[in-house]
Amino acid sequence: MAIFAGLMEKNWQVYSGADPEQTGRLAAALGVAPLVARLLLQRGIDTAEAAYRFFHPDLRNLHDPFLMADMDVAVSRLEAARARGEKVLIYGDYDVDGTTAVALVHSFLSAQGFFTSYYIPDRHREGYGFSAAGVAFAREGGFSLIITLDCGIKDRDRVLLATEAGIDVIICDHHNAGELPPALAVLNPKRPDCPYPYKGLSGCGVGFKLMQAYSQRAGIEPGRLFAFLDLVTISIGADIVPLTGENRILARFGLALLQTQRRPGIAALLEQADFKKSALTISDVVFLLAPRINAAGRIFSGTQAVALLVSDSGEDARPIARAIEENNKTRKALDSAITGGARQLIAADPFYTDSFATVVYQPDWHKGVVGIVAARLVEQFYKPTVVLTENEGKLTGSARSIAGIDLYETLSKCAPLLEQFGGHTMAAGLSLKPANFEAFREAFDRVVGETLGYRRPTPQLPIDAELSFDALDHNLFQQLEWFQPFGPENMTPLFLTRGLVDAGGTRTVGNDGKHLKLQLRRADGSRAIDGIAFDMGHLAGMLKEGRAADVVYSLEENEWNGRVSLQLMVRDIRLSANQASVTPAS
Predict the structure, then answer these.
(1) Burial bucket for residue 348 (CB in 10 Å: 0-12, 13-18, 19+)
(2) Which CATH number is 417's domain given?
(3) Closest C-alpha among 521, 553, 524, 523 to residue 536
């Protein structure tokens, strides 16, 4: 039985475990539970010294920003702009990564005496990337330097346009880089010739490194820049970049700021979201803050998000936050309607019966939510997915992928059929002529099929360990919290417990009984633990019948009326009779 009705069943993969002697030595050296040592070893952390660095991120361990290619040129140009009083335009993408980057760089440079303004392209009129309209704005406004954030690496023509107008361009981007545009400086750790040791920075993270380099050169006290780590952390969570290395350091300290020194815009947004927990995690960033900040650019304008993030007072921030909350409600309604329409198209078209990819199009779908819809279709069908709409005579849209399919490489092989594309391994944007839709759908499907070896993959659910309920206590939870912040390449540990039955408190909750509030215990034991299983309300009957189930979950603490208790965040449930399908993972 799968988690969700209609979704593909996942292949459970339980890690076979590290060497017991090595696990024991590391646990003894650290004074931690063997499970914690095992989790460290599974992450490649095999010494007490490495574990200390992992558990105690230090801002002093950030890499020298001047290791990044072109950084010296970029900083020298900033120094010249400051000395000559030039006008600097901060240009960024309309998503969370871009708007947080613009808010950071604009605010920091303004505080250092630069004459700055910012520009966010209109998603509907200009589309993704460094636009001709943005160059025109800079030319007409007398700007002599443009800093692009989270975009620019694929925008050769617009960089040339700016250069021909006498405007220098510094690109800060983190998307995959092919031929570099002719900018004054291209800051991107993914440049083939860039020696920067950490490649996983967000777009905002690259902007932060530019500000770090400028601060070092100008002798600015580091704390003045570190005050913006909350924005970097929001970008890290929203853009799904690795939570390893430098990102782990930045996010750990940024989360501390989000707990203790919330800027007015973030406080107003959390107030609108009715956020009452005492602690804010990366998950809250991903599922609470990011969708709301993104809603500004999806429904109205990314400029609205920047205005919120640079607000100096709650009085200024609250009306913007209220408007963004309304945008988010609109986004949810559009998401639901378009996802339903896309599913109907898929059900009605025989092409998708045997396809390895999904490519759907309707001319009236809202451009701001097609990326979300693509993600939902991947979740249901587990195929790389492209969702397209029509804008100014072109098909434009977003793509989302699955494990084993690099979207950027896949789209590169379809490039003759595309007008423009760019992005990451797992997410990308693209545009094409309407006449090329059928040819692109076939080409994209063919490339995905070839890459998969014409095998239909099953989504994997990696499980860190099989545990008994007896092992679950607050001490273990506190040790697991040392692994925070969680994210790609450092995912929340998942555990499996077999043979659980309803302890009497299982019930459906939420609209139409969509979710499941659980109370579970071992069939041969008395201890019960509460849990929550989103989108699993349809399983209530099975558990109420007294049938034993195997449950995959992560651990969290639940606060209710001042009481703190352990809770299972359930990821998958199967009848115990299916346990033979569990496979080991290395």
Answers:
(1) exposed
(2) 3.10.310.30
(3) 553
Query: pLDDT tens digits, residue range 294-321?
Result: 999 999 999 999 999 999 999 999 999 9
Tell whether 131 and 99 lie within a shared domain. Answer: yes
Nearest C-alpha neighbor of 376 from the set 340, 405, 404? 340
Among 45, 233, 74, which Cα is nearest to 146's? 74
Beta bridge partner(s), residue 531: 518, 568
| Same domain for 406 and 358 | yes
Q: How far is CA 145 from CA 25, 168, 270, 457, 500, in A?
A: 56, 5, 35, 48, 63
Q: In CATH, what number is assigned to the domain containing residue 541? A: 2.40.50.460
* Residues 575 and 1 sit within 8 Å (Cβ to Cβ): yes
Same domain as 192, residue 112: yes
Biggest CA–CA distance in the chain, Å, is 77
**Which residue is listed with tokens 């910012």?**
118
Tell me the C-alpha distance between 333 and 339, whole Å.
10
pTM for this one? 0.90
Please say whether the beta carbons of 551 and 532 come within 8 A. no
Within a 13 Å sphere around the CA of 560, how many CA atoms are in the beta-carbon half? 7
Residue range(s) defining the domain that contains residue 126: 61-222
Per DSSP, the three-state class of 414 is coil
List Cα–Cα distances, 247 to 94, 171, 233, 285, in angstroms.
22, 20, 8, 15
CA–CA gap between residue 17 and residue 411 (Å, rounded)? 37
- Note the pLDDT tens digit of each residue in 412-468: 999 999 998 988 889 999 999 999 999 999 999 999 999 999 999 999 999 999 998
For the chain, the distance separating the N- and C-terminal CA atoms, rounded to the nearest angstrom, is 24
Q: Residue type at 354?
A: D
> Measured between alpha carbons, how far is 508 from 536 in angstroms, rounded to an integer?
9
Token duo for residue 345: 């198209």
Q: Kindly state whether residue 292 falls inside one of the protein's structural domains.
A: no
pLDDT at position 422, please?
86
Q: Cβ–Cβ contacts within 10 Å for residue 319, how many?
A: 12
Q: Which of 133, 124, 134 is nearest to 92 (CA)?
A: 134
Query: Span 63-84, mean pLDDT?
Result: 98
118 and 215 co-located in one domain = yes
Residue 486 CA to residue 443 CA, distance in Å, equals: 36
**Residue 316: inside a domain:** no
Name beta bridge partners: 12.
Answer: 461
The DSSP 8-state label assigned to residue 285 in this structure reads I
Domain of 126, CATH number, reads 3.90.1640.30
